[in-house]
Amino acid sequence: MWAVNKSDRDRAQWADVEEPSISDGAAEVLAVIGRAYVIVDAVDGVVQASPGAYALGLVKGHTIVSQELVEMIHRVRSRGIIVEREIKITRGTVNKTQLVIDLRIAPVGDEYILVLADDRTEIARVQEVRNDFVANVSHELKTPVGAIGLMAEAIESSADDEESVKYFSTRLQKESKRLAALVQDVIELSRLQSTDVVRQSKLVDVNNLVASAVDYNRIMAEGKDIQLLVGGRARRPIHGDPELLGTALRNLVENAIRYSPEKTKVGIGITEKNGQIKISVKDQGPGIPEDEQDRIFERFYRVDPARSRQTGGTGLGLSIVKHVMGQHGGEITLWSIPGEGSTFTMTLPAVDEQSEQDLLGPDIEGTQTVSAKKLTTPGGGSVSALKKKDAN
Question: Where is this region: Disordered (predicted)?
Fold first, then answer.
């Protein structure tokens, strides 16, 4: 089945019109397997390769690109064994990306070598992110837990000194709050990864969503004498999980307050255009350097780790926002210039009038419940009218 068609081979010896190829049956089997493949002859020439093999950068023209792969093919040919191995291949010349490829190389008959390839790049990336996350969580938990232990010992040893007890008690409270916030954010991220947002979607009033986020952070803002200014209104609602959307917006407002100096302003703006609703949160903080902006939404990434810990941030807030936006078909964008502050913008699709009529019912968030009442027209037809239910 794996043999190269003899007629094809004979013709290739006398003319360049056709090149060696595998039989139709073999090609069908390889297609069913669903993996990228390359078939190599006795002199390392590529007899046939799948489109996937070219896409992965294993083959260029009729040549194997990776020297590491060539050496593995030689080993299989000389020993008659099957080799399985994972290799890394750099693809691209300008924006170089490294792919992780899982290979299985086996002899086929006396002349040919079959290479099967799986792209494991995304799996490897997810595993790396998971490992980093576990390591970072462990590190972040150690800091407040260790500090709490030290504060407790200090209080015990300073039992007769009222001022010291008061000082260490305040520090103890601060570390306890930081630990609680970190645990809550980790739980929130886990929920985001396991929750089916669609099943919990409701019509959400954007104006009420913003008002709730402002009210939630008001005490924190007053503690720094920061004004929270809201501008604009949304005419249409959005569709999503009100709790998750509220968490995302609260995180943005909280971050803006944390990084803005005392006696400044934080602005929250609402705009609606072309079927989209944008909620922007602008601070007067130090801003974020351009080379840091692509990483700002990574878990535990901080532009200034010392400052973040001082302000009480967990390093997970923006990652949560990004996850929430992704699950709602929206996006989070950043505009920032060092020294001029930052603006984070949540963009979400607005619900059109027809969709709102279809979805309207007891689950619109932040508005009165409505129901449809059938009315008979003089002509015998019927129309639907919306009648507000008694709140009681």
Answer: 365-392
Whether 353 and 273 map to the same domain: the answer is: yes
Q: Are 113 and 146 in the same domain?
A: no
CA 78 vs CA 1, 49, 75, 337: distances in Å: 22, 22, 5, 60
HSE (side-chain half, CA atoms, 13 Å) at 333: 9
Per-residue pLDDT tens over the stretch 73-83: 999 999 999 99
Q: Which one is predicted more confidently, 7 or 99?
A: 99
Domain CATH code at residue 330: 3.30.565.10
Q: Is residue 386 part of a domain?
A: no
Residues in the chain: 392
| Residue ranges making up the domain that contains 152 | 121-194
Please give the full DSSP string across 48-117, using - where no structure is assigned: EE-HHHHHTTSEETTEE--HHHHHHHHHHHHHT--EEEEEEEEE-SSS-EEEEEEEEEEEETTTEEEEEE
Do 332 and 209 share a domain, yes or no?
A: yes
* Whether 41 and 71 share a structural domain: yes
Model-level pTM? 0.53
- Tell me how many domains the chain contains: 3
* Section 213-219 average pLDDT: 94
Average pLDDT, the chain: 77
Residue-level pLDDT at 182:
73
Q: What sections of the chain are H helices per DSSP?
A: 6-14, 24-33, 51-55, 67-79, 121-157, 162-194, 206-216, 218-223, 242-259, 305-311, 317-327, 353-359
